[in-house]
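> forwarded from #structure-qc
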């Protein structure tokens, strides 16, 4: 998986932003060197010496004033044109219908694909080589969606959808983060963007659309009953059961995902069990209660959730 960096752009959008940053950075560095250099030169060359009067005064010199007005104006105009072109490449107007609607929640990300009906959380799959129009919403407070290698940053604002484009040149997995402080667990609001070949993406979409299988007997069946008898259904959805709530992540294919609790832990059996035992210990402040399950109940529930491939 890629590290979080702005110096390794992997999409036309991110490259446009990166190139602007480099060009602007060079211009700013040149201005700094010239201005600082002139100050140092003036300090040495024109410093007061024994027996010397004031240097020649040139207040109101037209040529000098024209030069130091025109050059900065030209720099500003050049930066304006460069920014304008970058915005055209990195941030074109959104598509009429978004490819993915991503909603920031305290402290996880929901992803809905309106065209296919897929709903998932914290692991966003995209086909490589295709620009996708993303609509960003918030369920509660301000969050910020940021995958530095493949797109710009954008705030999610309650009641005001924002839009960005993301794209990946090739199949690769990227780390994304929330980059706007949004409460206790802001630091654990990570997500993955998994760019795949179009075939892999289609297969993933198909798999996500299948309802959860009902376990046939054993501990997992008891776990399923537990899921339905406790209040899990008030917050979670599992397609193929009566659970349809959207307060917490959709769990229909939870076991196929790589991360748990928006990146606080790797998704494996041991971590899932700790989560169900006491989510507050794994992710303090998390909006899921501690049910104080017995060891047997924990095993049953873990067995059931592990079937949600
Ligand atoms: Cu956040």
């Amino acid at each position: 998986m890629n590290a979080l960096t702005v110096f390794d752009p992997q999409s036309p959008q991110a490259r446009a932003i990166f190139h602007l940053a480099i060009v602007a950075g060079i211009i700013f560095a040149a201005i700094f060197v010239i201005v600082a250099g002139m100050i140092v030169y003036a300090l040495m060359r024109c410093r007061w010496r024994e027996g010397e009067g004031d240097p020649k005064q040139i207040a109101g010199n037209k040529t000098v004033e024209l030069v130091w007005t025109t050059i900065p104006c030209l720099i500003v105009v050049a930066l304006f044109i460069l920014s304008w072109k970058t915005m055209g490449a990195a941030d074109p107007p959104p598509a009429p219908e978004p490819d993915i609607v991503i909603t920031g929640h305290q402290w996880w990300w929901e992803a809905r694909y309106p065209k296919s009906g897929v709903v998932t959380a914290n692991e966003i799959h995209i086909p490589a080589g295709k620009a996708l129009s993303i609509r960003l919403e918030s369920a509660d407070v301000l969050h910020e969606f940021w995958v530095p290698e493949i797109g710009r940053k954008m705030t999610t604002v309650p009641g005001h959808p924002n839009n960005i484009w993301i794209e990946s040149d090739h199949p690769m997995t990227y780390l994304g983060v929330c980059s706007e402080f949004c409460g206790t667990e802001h630091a654990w609001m990570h997500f993955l963007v998994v760019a795949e070949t179009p075939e892999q993406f289609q297969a993933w979409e198909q798999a996500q659309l299948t309802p959860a299988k009902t376990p046939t007997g054993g501990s997992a069946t008891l776990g399923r009953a537990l899921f339905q008898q406790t209040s899990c259904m008030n917050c979670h959805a599992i397609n193929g059961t009566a659970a349809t709530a959207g307060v917490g992540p959709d769990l229909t294919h939870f076991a196929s995902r790589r991360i748990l609790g928006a990146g606080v832990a790797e998704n494996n059996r041991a971590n899932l069990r700790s989560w169900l035992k006491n989510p507050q210990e794994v992710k303090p402040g998390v909006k899921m209660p501690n049910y104080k399950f017995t060891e047997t109940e924990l095993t049953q529930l873990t067995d059931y959730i592990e079937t949600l491939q």
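QC bot note: The longest helix spans residues 12-45. Helices lie at 12-45, 62-90, 198-209, 219-229, 269-277, 279-282, 295-306.
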